[in-house]
User: Fold these one by one.
Assistant:
Number 1:
Amino acid sequence: MKSFLFGLGLGLGLGILFAPMSGEETRSNLAQGASDLADSARDAVEQGKERVRSGITAIRNAGQNIASEVRATGTEPAI
């Protein structure tokens, strides 16, 4: 994913630099590209956070299940 974003940014930058536009148009395009890249990075971070939350929830539930089994049987569960 990192290499894709790097390549996207590099290609976007080179494309803008070699395009026949005025300085104002070029700056506007660069700002838009940076904004799009930042949005993509935020989305990737949010997806990562959600995966971590899901993993923590799964571990917490498994721990609670094991604790309940130990309390109910008075012995350690076979894992």
Number 2:
Amino acid sequence: MSEDRPSRPRRPALFGPAALDSLNGAPDPAQLAEAAHATAAAIVDAGRRADDPEVTARLVRLVDDHGLDTIADLWSDRPARSLPGALWRLYVVREWVRRDPVGASVDYHAGQQLAEVAHVVAGVAQPPGPDEVRSLADAVLTGVYSGELDVALQRAAAFCRVVSAGRAVRAGVAEGEAASTLTRRAASLQQTADDLDAAARAWRARDLT
């Protein structure tokens, strides 16, 4: 990645109806895939080149400003182990934590002793209450644009592993449909963690596109 920096960092304006309307007519899958990878690369590059806390903060708040559906239209169908797929998962995790910080903190607290290494990597402040998990979710996305992207992906993966372990613990004492739901969600989050770790390795190998 070039070290050259623009003289005036510009706010990325890559989301919204125009991002898809520009494809003209009914877009085919190849056009959608190209748009997804192009916007993901441009967003990450713009954020990292800007070196501006205000730009970083706006990028962290993409879902707040543009809505999860808008980002889903561009990124949610891409492979999990791609740049748009990884970014999509980071924003979904942040949105879940933002909407249900109490539930996120309960799951995390329940799992941290069973996933001690992941707990250390995630770096959630103790005790892991609602404010602490919210701060972690924001810190992860901040790291995408102003730190090391692979580290940000690994922290998110570790957070997911701890929460997954917590859900498994809760499933063990739940009954019926509640137990089944928690088990299913724990497995899904474990897969998300695996995908984010794989994306981190691909980024280090300069192979995450």
